[in-house]
Amino acid sequence: MHFTTLLVSAGLVHLSIAGYTLEDDYSAANFFSMFNFQIENDPTGGYVNYLDQPTAQSDGLINTNNGLVYIGVDNTNVASGRGRNSVRLESKKAYNHALVVLDLAHMPAGCGSWPAFWTFGPGWPSGGEIDILEGVNDQTTNSMTLHTGDGCSANSPASAFTGQQNTYNCYVGAANQSANEGCGFSATASNSYGTGFNSNGGGVYAMEWTSNYIQIFFWPGGSAPSDVLGNTPNPSGWGRPAALFQGDCDIDQHFMNQQITFDMTFCGSWAGDAWGGNCAAQNGNSCNAFVQNTPSAFKETYWSVNSLRVYQDSPTSDTAPSAASKPQPAAVPVAVSVASFATPASQSSSTTSTTTSTPIASSSAPADPSSAQAMTHPAPVTVTAAPVVITVAAPSTTLVPKASSVYSSQAAQTLDVLPADAEVLQSDEFGAGSPGIPDPWRRKHRRHLAQHVRSAPAHL
Q: Strand 98-106 and strand 203-209: pairing?
């Protein structure tokens, strides 16, 4: 078994699909007609009563006044029965590959709340779930997560994104992770979620989903690039995303037919389990009791949508473009130092190093996944001026992931066979470790996987 380590020094290169065109505009005039109103019991065990469209409209929980879409909760009555009245929307249309751009003036916030803007596919978790904007209680930064079936992990180098990666295995039943933890990132900006987001005038979230990666961008109000909200956005010019999900994962196998979803639940298996700190100190020890008896606390618990648009890089939303149909990038020679070494069982007494000129794609189109270069630099790849270590396996081996307890034991064993001069591969350069992960993130994943194995996809 031989591994190849590439030390690359070059200018910033970021590969992304260009040429997006508007597919669907969820404008205020037709917004609610493009969604189904789900009234089922909350799959996450929340203290919430989801309403149908006529009831939600008559009770003032939804409207489209002044060109803004308002989605709120009951903030005048003591709750009873299933819980506080709210709304859960799921798009009537499903997508395969998309650029989804959400411009928000306001999002739900406050103790007891659990808002989320996300997508899901059929037969959860095999169809995949993409959490774009999510959090609970008085959380201050956004949580971005993928949930999948077995065989998908995200392990991009830390230099490729601006957030903090907390977990790496996207499989909901992954060993050494809590049930349904998935692979996730926390944003680092305090204005990315909740009251900080609202006090800063809202912001824009964009999620790009291709065959090669899923990435999520965030810009505080008024700071998005000029093309983000236009008719032909181009993510290749947006810089680093807040979260980049790329690595040992067949995206097209794990994500399909995604429906766009807004929901606003209370307490349940995350906000309820994470109840504590300031929320408990100020409002008592029971999340449910607080949500039930304090309607005035939820006046800020609403979505105010400036716009929601979905773009496609092909004419239809239900057919993924084939690799053969995609434009192939031009190549730019970049100096690459290649060190080849063997496993201890066959290691010789010397190690050789050579320098060669290897082409790296510079176009905004994704690299051909069947090519050797695509294996070395799957799009999008960021190469910075500082040395970056990229590890690939020979064709008969598997990709070497970050040395972390969240990986499988097989991956850990793979790292153990590397020689001492590859120690850098096990450093924090390839993602943040567990220190610094917010407590709400840890508490979120106490939820039980069993309660979500059901015909209707659960949002987690």
A: antiparallel
Which of helix, strand or coil describes residue 416? Answer: helix
* 129 tagged catalytic: yes
Q: What is the dihedral of CA 160, 162, 165, 169, to 10 degrees?
A: -40
User: Which spans in 200-328 are helix H?
Assistant: 251-254, 277-283, 287-293
The answer to whether 336 touches 296, Cβ cutoff 8 Å, is no
Residues 70-107: tens digit of each pLDDT: 999 999 999 999 999 999 999 999 999 999 999 999 99
User: What is the bridge-based pairing of β-strands 48-50 and 84-86?
Assistant: parallel
How far, in Å, are 190, 242, 371, 378 from residue 375 at the CA level? 36, 23, 7, 6
Decide: 389 and 424 in contact? Cβ < 8 Å: yes
Question: Long-range contacts for 412-418 (Cβ within 8 Å, ≥24 apart)?
Answer: 417/1, 417/343, 417/344, 418/3
Task: Give the model confidence (pLDDT) of 371-401 as tens digits.
Answer: 333 333 344 434 344 444 444 343 333 333 3
Please tell me the pTM assigned to this model. 0.69
204, 241 Cβ separation under 8 angstroms: no
- Please list, in sequence order, all residues whose beta carbon lies within 8 angstroms of the beta carbon of residue 179, skipping any fewer than 6 positions away: 172, 173, 445, 447, 448, 449
pLDDT at res. 460 = 52
Catalytic residue among 134, 181, 208, 300: 134
What mean pLDDT is predicted for residues 291-313?
97
Q: What does the pLDDT look like over 11-35, one tens digit per residue?
A: 333 455 558 999 999 999 999 999 9
By the 10 Å C-beta count (0-12 exposed, 13-18 middle, 19+ buried), 343 is classed as: middle
Residue length of the chain: 460
Helices (H), 47-98: 53-58
DSSP state of 270: I
Whether 208 is catalytic is no
**CB-side exposure of 95: number of CA atoms within 13 Å?**
28
Q: Which of the residues 23, 40, 90, 129 is marked catalytic?
A: 129
- Convert the pLDDT of each residue in 406-422 to its tens digit: 323 333 333 333 333 33
Nearest to 460 by CA among 139, 128, 3: 128
Residue range 264-285, pLDDT digits in tens = 999 999 999 999 999 999 999 9
Q: How many CB atoms lie within 10 A of CB 348?
A: 8
